[in-house]
Structure prediction request, 265 residues.
Amino acid sequence: MRRLAWALAAGSALGAGGAEARPLRVMALDQCADQYVLALAPDADLALSPRADDPDAWMREAAAGRRRVRPTLEAAIAFRPDVVVRYWGGEPRLLARLEASGVRVVTIEDATDFDGVRADIRAVAEGLGVPGRGEALTARMNGTLRRAAPRARAPERSALYLTAGGFTAGKGTLVDAILRAAGFSNAAEEPFFAPISVERIALFPPARFVLGFFDQARGDWRGPGRHPVVQRTARGRVAARLPAAVLTCPAWFAADAAAMLKAGA
Prediction:
């Protein structure tokens, strides 16, 4: 392990000496980090995670043809990143070795509202040395939120967010912020993410459903959200079906989820 750390440090030192001769090397340790670096540093030399072009990745088309690496110390040594971006990816020993070797590690925080997303965009953009691009991405998100906002004096509508796995999202979640941005009140009674039973939905059906992750045909295919009773209850009450790609990461495209919700309603 010491030899690996020494190699990483030596590689970083060599890279620093030739920084002007090559583009910035950026390594993303998970799918959420992939979205951020593709949006903010498309001209950098990127090493993306293995899930960069999965169907639930918002920037999957931009990931086509890009290098993919596993989030390991060996991969970092081979790539010699200047900056590493992560949301949940990277085990503690890897992160400690990277930081000890002088590699800048930028962490995307788990935002629960759009101010949190703005802070994440700012932090990643500054970590990549492109604060202006961060401001532009935030401005784009703000514009989408303005378009998704309900009309003045529009009546508030209630909706229950439901995943195929049978979970809902209450206050203290980015899903709640998405609902409110589109003019909906949240019908979930419990804060944060919580399971909701088929019986509860059948006995106390919400006025509207907002369905999430149902586009993943193989995901939770036997989950409570796909139960025939739930499907019958939801018929004619679905305000929007949000694809997994807008829900898997606390990022600017959460505003696109709000726009989809407004359009669907």
In short: The first strand starts at residue 25 and ends at 28. Residues 1-7, 13-19 have pLDDT under 50 and may be disordered. The longest helix spans residues 131-148. The CA atoms of residues 56 and 245 lie 4 Å apart.
